[in-house]
Amino acid sequence: MTDTSAILAHLKAEQTETDAAGHGINAEEWDRLVTRLGRNPNLVELGIYSVMWSEHCSYKSSRRHLSKFPTKNDRVIQGPGENAGVIDIGDGQAAIFKMESHNHPSYIEPYQGAATGVGGILRDVFTMGARPIALVNALRFGSPDHPKTRSLVAGVVSGIGGYGNCVGVPTVAGETQFDEGYNGNILVNAMAVGLADQDKIFYARGATPGNPIFYVGSKTGRDGIHGATMASAEFSEGDEEKRPTVQVGDPFTEKLLIEACLELMATDAIQAIQDMGAAGLTSSSVEMADKGGIGIEMDLDKVPQREEGMTAYEIMLSESQERMLMVLKPGKEDVAKAIFDKYDLDAEVIGVTTDTGHMVLKQFGEVVCDIPVPPLAEDAPNYDRPWVEPRTRQAFDISKYPEPEDYGEVLLKLMSSPDMASKRWIWEQYDRHVMGDTIDSSQSMGDAAIVRIHGTNKALAICSDCNPHYVAADPYEGGKAVVAEAYRNLSAVGATPIAITDNLNFGNPEKPATMGYIVKAIEGMAEACRVLDFPVVSGNVSLYNETDGKAIPPTPVVGGVGLIEDVSKIATLKGAQPGDVLILIGETKGHLGASLYAREWLGLKGEELGPPPPVDLEKEMKNAAFVRKLIEEGLVNAVHDVSDGGIACAAAEMALGTASGIHLITQDHQIREIDGNTYSFGGQSGEDWPDLFYEDLGRYVVAVSLGRLAETWEAISRDQISAWNIGQFGGDAIIFDDLAKDAISLTTLREAHEGWLPRFMKGD
Question: Does domain 571-764 have CATH number 3.20.20.150?
Fold first, then answer.
C-alpha cells in the first residue's frame, strides 16, 4: 500500500465501543451514536462525535438547567445560542459580549493557555461584526503557599497582557482571588465587549445550500487537538504531559484577522460566519450547518496546513488559533480573497453547503466522513444528572469570638489579605487605555470600568464578579449574590444595568453533590436575573474542574454590562473631597457568615464559616435606583459598593483612591453640628465593633460635600431609604475613635494594601 492508502485505511477503519471509551464516549453514548448513525463510525467520525458530544461543546450536563435563565428584556437583540450576546444601547448601536473559560489549558501551559483564551473570546465578538473595545479577566489561583501558585500567576498574567496588549484592545476590568481550593485547577475566565451597528450584525445562522465555504486566518497545525475533550475531563497528577493539547496564539495575526473580517463584512459578502474555537473546524462547520438546517461538504486537502502529513482526523480536531469559517454569498469569492490577501492571511474555498443535512468530508479524493448533522448538535446527549440538596450551614454566632483589641490591626490584616490586597502588580501589566476611550478602569479597586462609546457622550460600564465563598456556603443565596453584586457595581458608577454573560465553573457533574451546587446556583442566579430584569445573553459552562477527585470551590462568574447615557454623570470611588460626609446607604443587620473577617481575622474554614448574607432583591433594586439618581443629580462626589470586608474596607479603599483620610464614627447616634445643622452619626445595630466588618448586601457608601448634605438627606427621606452618616473625610489617616490604639496613616494602609502581591511575586 502507498502511504496515502495506509492513511485512508487508518481513517476509515471501523471503530468499537472500546475505541469510543478512549475518546471520552461512554457506553450509553456509544449506543446512542450507533443508533443515530445506523452503523459503527470510522476514526474521523468518532473523533468528530467525541468533541461535539464533549461537555465543553454540548453542555450535556447543564443544558436543561441553563434554560431556567431569563434571556430577554427590552434591550436584548440576541440571547444565548450565537457566538455572543447582543444588546441595544440606542442610536442604532449594539454592544456584543461574551465570557469563556480557558481553565485547563492555563494550568498546563499558563502563558499560552491564558493568551489563547483572550484570542478566542475576541473572535467570538468580532465574528458578529463588532469591533472589540474592552477585555475583562476573572482569575482564581491556589493558595499563595502552594509551590505552583507563583509561576501560574506570572504565566497567566503575562499571557493575558502579552496577547491583549499586542492585539490593541484594553483590559479594563477583572478580579483575582487566591484559595487552596484552586491549587490543582486554576480558573482563567476571559470576557470581551465590542460595538457594532445594529443593522450590521453577523450570525452563524442563515447559511443556505449551494454556497462556498471559506476558510480564513492562520494555517492549521497539530496544536490543540482534543482540547475540547481535555476541558471536559478531570485532572490528575502528571497532567502537565498534556501540553500538546494547548494551542499557541499569535496576537499580531489576530489583529490582522479582526481588520480583514470587519473590512469584508462591510462588502455584504458573508452569509454566515463562525470562529474556530473549541473543536476547531468541526464545531464551526457543524454549528453553521445545524443553525441553517443544511449539509456541508469539505475537501480537507484544500485546508491551509502548516505541518506536513496531517490527516483528516487531525485537521478536523485541531484547535490552532486565529482561524474563522464563513459561508459566502454566490460570486463573492474573489472579493473575499482579495481582502485577505491584502492582510497576508490564508483564505481558501474548502467546500460547499448542501441540502443533504450531512457532513461529508474528503481527503485524497475519497470520502472519509459521512454523518448527519443534527445528532452532532441539538440532538447531542442531554442528561438529567442526579443531584442532592446542598447542606444548610448553622448560623454564624459572633458572640463566640472575642472583640478585637485594635481595629487598626484588623483593617490592616484584611486589606493586605490575598483576596483583598491590591492587584496593581497584575493590572499594571495590561494596557488599559489603548484606543483612547477608557474613562475609568475597575482594576484599581473600582466597582466597574467605564468605556466611552467612541464619538459619543455615552459609555458602557463593565464588571466581573463572583464570591465563591458565598456560593460554597449556600449556592442558591450565593448565586443570587453574584448577580446582585454585578448589578450594584454597575449602579455604583451611574450605569443602568442591562444584561450579563456568565462563566459557570464547577467540578464533576457526575457527582450528585457537585450537581446539587450547579443546580441551586443556577436557580439562585436565575431568580436574581428575573427580579432585577438583568438577563443572561451569553455564557460558558466549565465543568470537571477538579484534580484527583477534589473539586474547585463553586465559582459561577458573572460579567455585567450597563449603559451610561451621559459620561459627565458618573461616579467612582476616587472623588471624595476633604470635609465630605460618608453616608451608608442600606441596612446593616449583622451578617458575618462566610465573610472576609471570619476567614482572615478569625481564621475559620468550611462549615464553621456559616451561611452567607441573604439577598433581598427588592431592596437591591430600590437602593441601586436611588444611588443612580444621586449620581444623575450630582449629589455625590464618590460611590463604592460595600462587599468584602464591609464598611471598613470600603471606606479604606475610598480613602486610598482619594488620598484623603477618613474618620469613621463608631459610636451610635453621635450628634455633630455641620453648617448650622445637626446630624446623627454612627451605625444602627447598637454593637459598635462588628458593624464595620458586616457584609450585609445591597449597601453602598457615598461621599457628599457639606454644601449638598441637607439636599441629599431630603432625597433620602423622600425616597424612604435606609441611610446613616458614618464618617467624614479629612486628614491623612483612618480614625476609629476609641476602637484603635492609633490612627492608621494612609501611608501605612497603602503599604499594607499594595505591598502584599509584589512581595509574594518576589518570593519575599
Answer: no
